[in-house]
Amino acid sequence: MKKVNRIFTVIVFIFLYIPMIVLAVASFNKGMDIAVFQGFTLNQYRELFRDDDLLRLLGNSLIIAVISSLIATVLGTVASLGIHSMRGRLRSAVMALTNIPMTNPDIVTGVSLALLFAFTGVLLRINSVLGFWTLLIAHITFSLPYVILNVMPKLAQMDPDLTEAALDLGCTPVQAFFKVVLHEIMPGILSGALMAFTMSLDDFVISYFVTGSGFVTLPVEIYSYTKKPIQPKVYAMFTLIFVAILLLMVTMNLLQARDSSKKLRRKEAHR
Amino acid sequence: MSQELIRLTSLVMEFDGERVLDSINLYINDKEFLTLLGPSGCGKTTTLRVIGGFLTPTSGDVLFDGKRMNDVPAYRRKINTVFQRYALFPHLDVYDNIAFGLRIAKLNEQEIDERVTEMLEIVSLKGFENRKVTSLSGGQQQRVAIARALVNRPKVLLLDEPLGALDLRLRKDMQNELKRIQQAMGITFIYVTHDQEEALTMSDTIVVMDKGKIQQIGRPEDIYNEPKNAFVADFIGESNILDGIMLEDYKVKFFGRVFACVDKGFEKNEPVDVVIRPEDIDIVSAEEGHLCGTVTSVTFKGVHYDTIVDFKGFKWLIQTTDFCPEGSYIGIRLNPEDIHIMHKSEYSGMFGDYSSYSAEYDEIADAEGSEDEA
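YS: structure for the whole thing
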């Protein structure tokens, strides 16, 4: 049974990672034909970094990802504190409301946001409302639940007496948050922020509906590439993005692992 | 002799319509070691939290030095707390935990250093300055928690079952330690516990609570020797509680026999509860006894035997160093000072009968008591 499991795991990983490997190999290929490897070159990467358009799009994506994840993290943390202080039915109701947008299909979220923005645009008599701001608002909206989902468990794990201890020692409630609570829930905030960042960076569906011609992110632009022959320098960019996301995810996992081993040691110390 | 520091007047606390504290009236003197004692759910922790400023009472007043403090938040009260599970800050080391309150008060670093060092000495934790609090043992964490509170030189220290998580040996040591610190620093301690022995050992004054009401306030000796009702008699130590009739001053009748006692001031022929402590009973031969009964069970407890004796169907607990085998027929003698008379109360008939005696009564009581209070 163990052996079968292991074989299955290997197969699953092959299926998951073969496309990425093919892409990475193609990005170093001298020839244009993806089926034939004609020799190693870094030309595609050189080409990529000469392409101002692509770099600008990547820049757009990063700007949106950074700003939206920062705002979502602050809002999400504040919201978590609020939800945490609620009790009973109200709390579970609010949590359910928070979770629904995550399970809601992106296409539905995208279309409804687009409608909302169009409606607001008409109300405010703005001609082309879709652009940077609508994109930013949309990204904050869909990454907010992920932050809350990461921060809430940290708040629940925290000894509730810690806040009271801080108040007892003379902290105002605001001081108590920054001097004590924040330190306790920081791992949750960090992983929430990282998740918001990656969600924002690779979102296509929602972005597609809420962005105008003025401000386009990388995934939206790349979608249009599938309709015409793809230039090999795009492979190079995909490879770079894949590596970046991989690094980010590994960091996130390491952070979590460190956090849980710390907790384990703390528990042992209690015995 | 000492000055009044805190006063609670007609304090009522309700959670979702449920009355947790019912008109609590209490004053606490400066430099006093006062213990709130009672079973879990009796309202002792709630009382402590009201004094600490973590709860606002539904009605009634909290006065400090005669000033009303109901709406003063916890962080503006000259009170510090030692929490049940210590609540040390895990991201700070021992030194920074203790210095926390002083840094909030913005003292200069030199004075902070002096006071923290002094506190470390008092709680015998010198050399532990840079240790992570998570790497300390329970007893050490406990002492950090005490140091962190006392370094602020509060007028009052609140302690919420601070020794509950420690093992018996360490608990005894810490009891002495706490009493020593309290006397050395001259600070008022308000101490919450469900452990009656702890309360008797450490306190100047004990407040026995049950069902959100104060049952009795007094010195440990008074609480033990002169319990006010069956609840107090049963909760503090072991008691045989029987129905009796107070014929006149110094004369009480129970089991169809008249006994001399030292109590007075009751109505003529008033029905009363009679308390007889298990360790006060002298076992004699059947012919010499005031009362005679059959031993139904004997348990060795180390210092003494717990002997259960059946007197006309009512079972008494007798603690004695004399071994009486099961089934033997014995007599007992009661001196007037061994008999304590109480007015009838809502608790009459609920306690003090050992018919369902179990040798593990101590362990059972402990297990119940150690549950967390809501």
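YS: worth flagging: The two ends of chain B are 37 Å apart (CA to CA).
IM: good catch. Also The domain at 239-369 of chain B is CATH 2.40.50.140 (OB fold (Dihydrolipoamide Acetyltransferase, E2P)).
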